[in-house]
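ugh ok fine here u go
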Amino acid sequence: MNKTISTLAAFGLLSTASLFAGNYSVDTSHSNVGFKVKHMMISEVSGKFDTFNGTFEYDEKSKTLKTLNGKVEVNSINTTNTKRDDHLKSPDLFDVQKYPTITFTLDKVKGNKAYGKLTMHGVTKNIILDLENNGVIKDPWGNTRVGLGLSGKLNRKDYGITWNTALEAGGVAVGDVIKLDVQLEGILAQ
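structure:
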């Protein structure tokens, strides 16, 4: 009898916890997948990807991100310079014909850090990103929304993206370190 009561109590706790967790789809019209990289060692060039999607699970009660899966279409890279974008898509850099997507899968959240796997240019690496949890709201149309920010750095050479050109004055045209800035707004799936 005690074993049955314990089992029912545990099931009840798990069921209650799942009532507060929701599955969200990334609202791409209110989200951004951006980056910055050094240009000629003296300034930063910003860019973003225009086409991406993702889903995540967020526990409203504990205010915790549980899962996150995202995919970026590399061909949608946009630095507001067509010539540069075409070069970024070429085999010199992203090689979009061979590697059309970048993916991210969350492994865990610990404090304000998101641990996951980033796959780019055919290479998968563990990455740690700063996580900004902006909370939950109800919008004027009755939708539940969650806002999240992910930021961090990666070395493009770790993913096999090594093209560069030396400058006469010293240094190189493109920095190795890429700064990531991802802002996500999710809508609770109905």
